[in-house]
Amino acid sequence: METTQILSPEWLVPVIPRGLVLEKHSLVLQAERIEAVIPRDEAISRYPDAKETSLDNQLMVPGFINTHGHAAMTLLRGLVEDRHMMDWLTNWVWPIEGELVGEQFVYDGNRLAILEMIQSGTTCASDLYFFPEMTARAVTEMNFRAQITLPVLQFENSWAKNEDDHIHKGLAFRDSVKHNHLITTAFAPHAPYSVSDQGFEKIGLYAEQLDLPIHLHLHETAQECEDSISDHGVRPIGRMQSLGILSARLQAIHMTQLREDEINLLAQHGVQIAHCPESNMKLASGICPVEDLRAAGLNVALGTDGAASNNDLDIIQEARTAAMLAKAVSGDATSLTVFDTLEMMTLSGARFLGLEGSIGSLEPGKLADITCIDLSAMALQPVYNPVSQLIYAATGREVSNVWIHGRQVLRDREALDMDISGIRAATLQWRDHIQRTLS
After folding, report:
1. How far is CA 298 from CA 162, 230, 247, 251, in A?
2. Phi/psi at 28 (nearest 5 deg)?
3. How high does pLDDT run on average in the chain?
4. Are 316 and 395 in contact (CB under 8 A)?
5. Which of 10, 285, 314, 385 is the most exposed place for a label (fewest CB within 10 A)?
6. Contacts of residue 62, Cβ cutoff 8 Å, sequence gap at least 6
7. How far apart are CA 205 and CA 289, in angstroms?
8. For residue 8, how many C-alpha atoms fall within 13 Å in the half-sphere facing its CB?
9. CA–CA distance, 276 with 319 (Å, rounded to integer)
10. Phi-psi region for residue 425, left (φ > 0), alpha (ψ -120 to 50) or beta?
11. What Å distances lie between residue 285 and 82, 225, 266, 281, CA to CA?
């Protein structure tokens, strides 16, 4: 890789400053970091020995950030459809996982998911699943950036026996990857209904001592809230408050069942929110009140959830759904503008992960996580506002070039240094094995 490179797109949207669309500008790349964002003529003059790559008809933005998913479950895409959330989870997904999940399943599922995410412009994702060691292996091999969470459940599974075993193995995993520049970690108690009070208290203590986030499915369904009142006398957020889990380190996922007082409580604690509209809609879980949360000053980022309940990992399509859903729910067509939505896909995701100082915008000094979208297709013409075309007309199939940590991983839609034939073969083998197992 050249030490200094000049990347010259048709349009460059740095996200910071907000709403800025630059034309005839270049991004100067120095190793893994952004050196400058300046007019193209100035870049060529200032860096005469640098190689320039012209990216005609392409929109350059920060790499997309997917703040919630279960990458290995991509191998279950389309397997169980049209079920209510708790029926889908307890009667289908968990029993199927009990039969199938092991190290190879997680590794192969992650490779498939990471390839899909890179090809659709995602450069960083948060993942929650068993055998995080295998997720880390796939992430590192494919030069992907990830928050790999440490799963905690009170139930025995193929990875751990109980809550203490989950925590012990999770902490050992954290130690094993703490020097990996592509990986950060967080605790991930699965949900209020699958972790005990004692488990949450231990996680809260460790998270505070180690300064780790807590990644938690929370207020995902009405049934979750009703069961919490029945079992604990309070709604899940009230229980999390009593256990000391509500704080700025909490990454709350879904949040479809919220009262005004609960939104105010979340804002008081500075909780981070991950919005997964397509999964929530498909499972009829409810709708996250995005504009109310944003109006309260909360940071709301975007996640796809797993491909078993989405069924894709295309964050561009997720963003379109989020923008249109926000307008429909609020009754206000000005809700979640195209620039709001782009920020949700990028900088808000970086804030969610605590990485806004390193990624999420195209600024000098930040790591070079970059996505380019080809807007030359006739279905995207004419282009008046390239960000509008990105949010309302494009899909991940228009993503053309991607860099992660300064290294190009997608060039002219071709994935670089990835064993695509091996990923395809492993996926087909798993399909056949799963069909035989369930028949």
Report:
1. 34, 29, 12, 11
2. -100, 125
3. 97
4. yes
5. 385
6. 14, 15, 346, 347, 359, 360, 361, 362, 369, 370, 371
7. 30
8. 15
9. 9
10. alpha
11. 12, 12, 20, 6
Measured distance CA(400)–CA(177) in Å, rounded: 31
User: What type of residue sits at position 25?
Assistant: H
pLDDT, position 171: 98
Distance, in Å, from the CA atom of 350 to the CA atom of 367, rounded to the nearest integer, reads 12
Contacts of 31 by beta carbon, 8 Å cutoff, 6+ apart: 1, 3, 406
Q: What is the DSSP letter of 123?
A: E
Question: What distance in Å separates the CA atoms of residue 19 and residue 214, rounded to the nearest whole number?
Answer: 32
The structure tokens listed for 222 are 């009405």
Percentages helix, strand, coil for the chain, rounded to the nearest 5? 45, 20, 35
The predicted-structure confidence for 65-110, as pLDDT tens digits, reads as follows 999 999 999 999 999 899 888 898 889 888 898 889 999 999 999 9
Q: How far is CA 404 from the centre of its chain?
A: 15
CA 407, CA 386: separation in Å to the nearest integer?
A: 25
The answer to whether the pTM exceeds 0.90 is yes
Encode pLDDT of 153-187 as tens digits: 999 999 999 999 999 999 999 999 999 999 999 99
